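Q: I'm writing up a methods section and want to include an example of the input and output format. Could you take the sequence below and give the corresponding predicted structure tokens, formatted cleanly so I can copy it straight into the document?
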Amino acid sequence: GQTGYTRNGTFTLNALNQLSTHDGHLLLANGEPITIPSRSAKIEIKPNGTVYADAQPVGQITLVGIEDKATLLPAGENMFFATENTTFTSVDGVLQQGYIERSNVNVIEELINNIKGQRMYESLKTSITTQDQTLAKAMEMGQVR
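A: Here is the clean output for your methods example:
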């Protein structure tokens, strides 16, 4: 398999107790899946990416920076692959357990705004059409024959 990169932090455990993305892609530490012992009561992911199960380290999620994100090859489902032009950099960010990065756009609110804008457009279009027809009638009345 090929190493993929994502900003999607929605992690889960698969049937083998391996840490994976919600799409089933395994999170790797040194090329091996991060496996959580089956009887673990508490799983923690520290800001540096270290994964703990009952206060024992079980793996390290690698955090990477990408110099130019345009060099990544989209693979769908918020997954990207590096290309020969991809340059990795040090990372300023951290992982925050319990926080999910999501869009800062409220889809419902924007849909309502879109509908309002569409209605305003239709109203103005009708008004302009009415004005145009009124002007045409006035011009017809003013013609001398």
